[in-house]
Amino acid sequence: MPELLNEHACFGGVQRFYCVDSETIGLPMRYSVYLPPDSEGKRLPVLIYLAGLTCTEETFMAKAGAQRVAAELGLILVAPDTSPRGAGVPGETDSWDFGAGAGFYVDALQQPWARHYRMYSHILELRELVLATLPADPERVGIFGHSMGGHGALVMALRNPDIFRSVSAFAPIAAPMRCPWGQKAFDGYLGPDQAAWRSYDATELMSAMEAAPFPGGILVDQGLADKFLAEQLYPEAFEQACARVGQPLQLRRHAGYDHGYYFISSYIEDHLRFHHRQLG
């Protein structure tokens, strides 16, 4: 069972931080939960947020300003950490974009990473934990994220449309096989066989679809002043893949906005309301 580390009153609800011994990771993992007001005895929709490189389970809850709208809409928010911590893998803290804080939401195949770096399975595990321990409706679970976490959210949703009913992203790494961040992570965690890479690339996954997996639509917001846009993110590749299979996509491009949480906080309300409409 999860251990409650601390909690804080927030917009009539409660912001909590937990730690749980993860079977998939093999280590304690932290995650945060926002419970809206009057949640006792109910079954509420849940949104799982996946954060980006270098972030923790606290980043979204502290910076995005999501709790006010979640309180109004009656949404539970959940945010896991971005990687195992304290795995003791040699070199795991040498680089900000690989290793600790950069699990890329994949299940590693290469040693020494394969033992603990299993973030794809951990997100599925966390979903089950949330459903077992919180007033959450299993039929109303959505997922979203930012950057590396936007990649993770799109991949989790596209591979599991039966359990994630809605999906959106902020500045996702939308075609990781084409960009330096993704190539470094996939080579290190998955090895040189690019067949394994394709199952964690949202553009490749969408391109292989025979029909739209989310007929109600996908929402993606992208800042045009994002310094990573041209080299790392490739939203246009995902847009083209969606068009080929008839997947409705709202890709909104915003002049002047960069890659950070000032951008996310500016449009977080739109995302929460999008998911609320999708989840009912």
In short:
The protein has 280 residues and is of the alpha/beta class. The chain is built from 10 helices and 9 strands. The chain has helices at residues 59-63, 67-73, 119-133, 148-159, 180-190, 194-198, 202-207, 229-233, 235-245, 261-279; strands at 3-10, 13-21, 28-35, 44-50, 76-80, 136-146, 166-170, 218-223, 249-254.
Which terms summarize this structure?
single chain; alpha/beta; 10 helices; 9 strands; 34% helix
The coarse silhouette is: globular
Overall pLDDT metric: 98
Termini separation (Å)?
29 Å
Helix segment count?
Answer: 10
Q: Helix coverage percent of residues?
A: 25-40%
Alpha carbon gyration radius: 17 Å
Structural class: alpha/beta
Strand content: 15-25%
Flag low-confidence runs.
none
Protein architecture, described:
It is a single chain. With 280 residues, this protein is an alpha/beta fold. Helix content is 34%, strand content 23%. It has ten helices and nine strands. Strands 1-2-3-5-4-6-7-8-9 form a nine-stranded mixed β-sheet, sandwiched between helices. A hairpin with a 6-residue loop joins β2 and β3 (28-35). The protein is globular, with a radius of gyration of 17 Å. The chain starts with a strand and ends with a helix. 50% of the residues are buried.
Topology (elements, then pairings):
Blueprint: E1 3-10, E2 13-21, E3 28-35, E4 44-50, H1 59-63, H2 67-73, E5 76-80, H3 119-133, E6 136-146, H4 148-159, E7 166-170, H5 180-190, H6 194-198, H7 202-207, E8 218-223, H8 229-233, H9 235-245, E9 249-254, H10 261-279
Parallel strand pairs: 4-5, 4-6, 6-7, 7-8, 8-9
Antiparallel strand pairs: 1-2, 2-3, 3-5
